[in-house]
Specification:
Death Domain, Fas; 14 helices; globular; mainly alpha; 241 residues
């Protein structure tokens, strides 16, 4: 079966949609009671009450499911099950579209997904050691990287909820071109949060792990330009800046 450029585009969009599904689940898990219901729904799959007892957030829960290969880009079923506890129309609608995409394009999606897995597996021990050395040589980078990793979803969620109709102005100040903004809008016609998420992801991917402070600086400057210094302060507070 011939794989086309369009197939690759569909796969890349599905990767973004998968991340968005996880974020929607985290946003909908608004109380300890909901988190507990989610744990009960997947208890038999995880087979470890002790492991689940240590879970304090939906993000931790999803991470465990991925580590145990119970949840992945090709296996979104458990997010669908969690929706029973989260009662989110956004998740319901997103999972329907997600499943439809997989159903229509399963073969090329699976091929690209497996290729990506093999590529990640090919990373050598030397490459990993080089990364460790870089972080060890600059403890400030290491410290900030760790802070950002822990607060990333919180920051994304905050901006998705608060930017609203200013999303295009925000995007322009992130140096996203009009053509790119139009494409993002086209891909997320009925999903404002999806547009904002895709913008943030595309900008973040232009920065390396050791330049994440520059990424945050870019975000906060863009927020100031659209007169949302309140969000700038919240992000800085989350990161202890």
């Amino acid at each position: 079966m011939e794989i086309t450029v369009q197939d690759r585009t569909i796969y890349e969009q599905l990767c973004k949609d998968y991340l968005n599904l996880k974020l929607l689940a985290q946003n909908a898990c608004t109380s300890p009671e909901r988190l507990e219901r989610c744990k009960q729904l997947i208890l038999e799959d995880v087979h470890s009450k002790r492991k689940l007892s240590r879970v304090s957030s939906c993000e931790d829960l999803l991470q465990i499911l991925e580590q145990r290969n119970l949840l992945s880009l090709l296996k979104p079923e458990l997010i669908e099950r969690l929706e029973l506890a989260l009662d989110s129309e956004d998740i319901t609608n997103a999972i329907k579209l997600y499943r439809k995409t997989i159903s229509l394009h399963y073969a090329p999606i699976r091929r690209f997904y497996l290729e990506d897995l093999r590529y990640r597996d090919r990373r050598t021990l030397l490459e990993r050691e080089v990364e460790k050395i870089k972080l060890a040589e600059n403890p400030n980078i290491s410290s900030f990287h760790e802070k950002y990793r822990k607060q990333r979803e919180t920051i994304y969620s905050l901006l998705q909820k608060q930017i609203g109709r200013d999303w295009k102005a925000f995007g322009r100040n992130l140096n996203i071109t009009e053509a790119e903004l139009d494409e993002i809008n086209e891909r997320n016609r009925n999903d404002l949060k999806g547009r904002i998420y895709e913008m943030l992801l595309s900008v973040e991917q232009t920065f390396t792990d050791d330049s994440l402070e520059q990424f945050i600086s870019t975000l906060t400057k863009a927020l100031e330009k659209i007169r949302r210094s309140d969000l700038k302060r919240k992000i800085e507070s989350e990161l202890g800046m």
